[in-house]
Design a protein that fits this description.
Blueprint: H1 9-21, E1 25-28, E2 38-41, H2 47-54, E3 66-70, H3 79-83, E4 89-93, E5 103-107, H4 117-121, E6 127-131, H5 142-152, H6 156-161, H7 169-181, H8 184-194, H9 197-207
Length: about 210
């Protein structure tokens, strides 16, 4: 449609090198299949990065299974704060009575993408990437992501019955397809939220 062009391997690697040099974040939509975009962006004007800043709980973009760990020797220079594309880093008091003005970096793990831009940009090498305590599971597709989020927030019934977009048989089939593929614990949550004996029976049959 005139919005993109094909690039060869050499140009692709060159573009990645430029993105790395300018501390851009490579990311994609938070799904495993049917990814709508892959991009290299900054946090100042990219709509996806701005969405991640404002609506991190919706998990609009893919995150890694890593988080930056801040050394106790952090100098509080603020470089990581300026580099972070989703404002997951901030400077706080070091609570050092001998140096009351000293500040250190603090991470908001809920916002962090695990991109590593702050780590490679730290001038004093006070940041390292470590595994997240809980592994991030990337949803299969946007429907899968939406259903899981609704179940975890106890809002599945609202997603189905307050959303006219889902009134078609195809849309409902996609939602129920996600539910049937979920682990048993989440299937039970879905069934309870919908308060549907019909769904319980189907889940029982599928689980056999």
């Amino acid at each position: 449609h005139g919005h993109a062009r094909e690039v060869d391997k050499t140009e692709c690697l060159d573009l990645l090198a430029q993105a790395y040099e300018h501390n851009l974040v490579q990311f994609g939509e938070n799904v495993r299949e049917g990814v709508n975009f892959i991009c290299n962006c900054c946090g100042c004007c990219c709509e996806a990065m701005l969405a991640a800043q404002r609506f991190a709980f919706l998990e609009p973009v893919h995150t890694t299974n890593y988080l930056p760990q801040i050394s106790e020797s952090c100098t509080g220079c603020g470089t990581c704060v300026n580099l972070c594309p989703v404002q997951a880093m901030s400077l706080v008091s070091a609570n050092n009575p001998k140096k009351p003005k000293r500040r250190i970096a603090k991470l908001d793990a809920k916002l962090c993408l695990g991109c590593g831009v702050c780590v490679r940009g730290c001038p004093d090498a006070q940041l390292t990437l470590i595994q997240r305590p809980q592994r991030v599971i990337t949803p299969r597709d946007s429907t899968h992501r939406t259903v899981i989020m609704a179940i975890e927030r106890g809002k599945l019934q609202h997603l189905l019955f307050d959303n006219q977009v889902l009134f078609s048989h195809r849309a409902l089939a996609a939602v129920f397809g996600v539910i049937f593929a979920l682990p048993p614990a989440k299937q039970i949550l879905a069934s309870r939220q919908l308060k549907s004996h019909y769904l319980e029976k189907i889940i029982d049959r599928v689980g056999v």
